[in-house]
Fold:
Amino acid sequence: MLKRAVLLLAPWFAIVAAWYAIAYSGFVNEALIPTPLAVATRFWELLTQARLPLDIWMSTQRVFLGVAAGITLAVPVGFVLGWYRQIRSFIDPLINFFRALPPIALIPLVVVYFGIGEFAKVVILFYASFFAGVIVMYEGIAQISPIYVRVAKTLGATDWEIFRKVIIPLTVPHMLTALRVALGVAWATLVASELIAAQQGLGALIQNASSFFQLDIIYVGIICIGFIALAMDIAIRAFTRRLVSWQDRIA
Amino acid sequence: MKRPARISFENVALEFPGKNGPVKVVDNVSYEIGNGEFVSIIGPSGCGKTTMMNMVAGFLQPTSGRVLVDGKPVKGPGPDRGVIFQEYGVFPWLTVRENIAFGLTLSASKKPKAERDEICNRYMKLMGLGDFADAYPKMLSGGMRQRLAIARAYAVKPQFLLMDEPFGALDAQTRAHMQDLLLQALQTEGKTVMLITHSVEEAVYMSSRIVVMTARPTRIREIIEVPFSYPRDPSLHEDPLFGQLRSRVRSLVMREYAAQARQTHETTD
Structure:
């Protein structure tokens, strides 16, 4: 137990140590590298006295809405594409075309069509999480072994029973993976989405700080995004383990 | 008086679409399987024996001729014909008990909960899975997974058991044990069985008749009656008559393997 905790924390300590080492090494201008302690102090200050809780709340809310909408659409679309090979061969190039477009490049268009309110920011996150989720979904579905459907047929299952009792249980693990990937991508896209006239949010915090060259605040914003994304991923994985404990895993 | 056939092939041929036109896989097969028979289909791998089983199971339709089950052409898969696959096909998201009960929750053979439990318990016992009722298949060995697949097929009371290399993925000891277990189960509840195998030993040990198929496009090469009565005992393997029969079937099958090798050689030249 103790060994596990040490192993878990060791890489984080290593990063902090390396950070200090670089800050004090003299190779880089000290003004360009705030120390971990300075960043931690600034974090505490922002958390207790200023805007940080609201920033976290706004960003989390946007990511949540964007991912919820993206996954809600990605699951049925990914399912159809994964299940029907013919449809997939037509739609696949389209998906990959749109997937490759960086959300940041779409911002001007999103502003034109959706304005600069909350909706526009969520649209960007929706876009990013939909395409990430849909690919994971359909690749997963396409790899489902047809033997389970054949077995169900020999036991007398109707098409509807096959869908309900075979396809859906086999789809659940892929839905959860799609959700995980979409959440990761959405957090990664957050700063871009908050380029759209955001007053609050971790992305807005970072951008404001950058205008005033407040490097410590930029670090605070980045680290917050990383940790919130990590916490969500851990939560989904724990949930996945409970929900699909039947899955055979190598590790 | 001739007993009515349960499964019949009437001039059955089947072609698959290929790059250079249709490829004939099954060529004019006529054969009948009677009630309670255990028929093994043996032949070189890739010859089309699985295709024959798939037509009875209802996964494939013959290009010409008819496949009849109890006098009616096969339209599709159904719970009257239990199918056992080499790769088990047990549902990984269901426990052992839930796997066995699966067919009994479907509209085709729906049973109330109490009866389902009773049926599950019976077949778990028959297949030696009683201690694993609530385990997921990932906890089970290959032999146990196949026992589970058999129990699940048995639960819906099929009249036929169609098996495609069911023990092919198992080690020799497990395989021998499975053969005896299946023979025992058949003693308890008789079925008409069609077994696809390329183990000569298995075919002779288990079946009442062996159909040796030719290389592709497959035809019936020879039909061999197996004279031993049921129940069969592992000591049968030592019987001189068993040895003779095994040699005879083996040499027939080997000749077809050789024919197939020549074919492949010609087509690649």
Summary: Chain A has two domains: 1-33, 39-243. The mean pLDDT of chain A is 90. Residues 39-243 of chain A form a domain with the MetI-like fold fold (CATH 1.10.3720.10).
